[in-house]
Amino acid sequence: MNRPLILASGSEIRASLLRRAGVEVTALAARIDEEMIRQSLQAENAKPHDVADALAEMKAARVADKHPGALVLGCDQVLEFGGAILSKPETLEQARQQLTDLRGKSHRLLSALVLYDAAKPIWRHIGEANLTMKPVSDGYLDGYLGRNWPGISASVGGYKLEEEGIRLFSAITGDYFTILGLPLLPLLSYLAQRGFIES
User: Fold this and answer.
1) Using one digit for the tens of pLDDT, what is the confidence trace for 109-166?
2) Structure pTM?
3) Considering the domain boundaries, does residue 198 fall inside one?
4) What is the domain count for the chain?
5) Largest CA distance in the chain
6) How far apart are CA 132 and CA 169, in angstroms?
7) Spatial contact of 58 and 46, defined as CB atoms under 8 Å apart
8) Domain range holding 131?
9) Of the chain's two ends, which shows fewer C-beta atoms within 10 Å, N or C?
């Protein structure tokens, strides 16, 4: 990077994906009340696509205000299921309920990116993936939760595809990095096109 890149997120997986791709990054979690903002947007009948985009932009804007000389990347991921948005499960019971609702059915993950430069948005992207969960048994679900809680509380829907969560699914369409919360290929392409990284 010929400019400092700040990831406006506390997500270890996003920071790790960027570093493994050879992009120098500093992670700085944006302090916003995501749940309150999400609920407010939903009360205004905002579509899941718009909720993800707005949250990513708010995170980027918050950090960019304090670091106007840096490139700042805001990210957010939304899980849309039957027209509703699911959040990260706060309790084991909530994770069990979400996974019970999702099993045997399909849902959509939307991963939004907004890049700021000089405290202004210069690029945005929303990746989409569709996932179909197997009709897993109650016994397997209980075992899965016992083995993976509380780690899965950091993921919308209560699963991590890069871990045992992959066993919950029968079909997936979409980009793997989008599912992990960072559509890496379009981001790297834009950074290279603008000369922010070597190509």
Assistant:
1) 999 999 999 999 999 999 999 999 999 999 999 999 999 999 999 999 999 999 999 9
2) 0.93
3) no
4) 1
5) 52
6) 6
7) no
8) 5-193
9) C
